[in-house]
Amino acid sequence: MAADGSDPASGAGSRGPGRQPGILACTRPPVPTSGARSAYARSLTAYSLVVGLCVALAVAPAMQRWKWFFPMPGTRTKCAHLGDYEALRAQAALHDLAGQDGAALAYAQDDRSRHVVDDCLASTTTLWLPVYALAAAALAALGVWLVGRGGGRQVSAGEV
Fold first, then answer.
1. Do the Cβ atoms of 90 and 59 come closer than 8 Å?
2. What's the Cα-to-Cα distance from 109 to each of 36, 67, 78, 82, 123, rounded to whole Å?
3. Average pLDDT of the chain to the nearest whole number
4. Which of 45, 82, 138, 140 is spaced 20 to 30 A from 97 at the CA atom?
5. Tell me, what's the pLDDT at 14?
6. CA distances from 149 to 1, 76, 95 (A)
7. pLDDT tens digits for 20-78?
8. Mean per-residue pLDDT for 71-93?
């Protein structure tokens, strides 16, 4: 026990029972307490949203690169068509270069096409990121809730 009567091991401090320790509240899953269901629900929601956002941001690059992870078939096709269109625009813009250096023109077309496709996929991923974040948050909340319920049954006083 500390001098102010708080227990440093519990993390409660002088804030009193039932109060969250501020920004560090989302570092570990909330623990269900008896009688305070709304506080538990708020803590579970905050924790789940933080976990969901972190997961969505971590998998965003994979969503752009791997077709199996984030299929979006129509969008990938449209992004490829945008790349083809940009290659034609590069050819039209650099028409003087076509007769002199075909390799430089091919490089410029490929470079512009790749940039346009990457931008298209990045903007589409950004649009879908909140959906992935909410799905990950729902899964995190379900997991924490199930583990909390299962853990409570294992340590009951009447069982040996």
1. no
2. 62, 24, 18, 12, 21
3. 76
4. 82
5. 46
6. 30, 42, 69
7. 555 555 567 777 777 667 788 888 888 888 888 888 888 888 887 787 777 777 788 88
8. 85
Average pLDDT score over residue span 2-25: 49
CA distances from 47 to 55, 106, 142, 143 (A): 12, 50, 12, 12
14 neighbors 4 (Cβ within 8 angstroms): yes
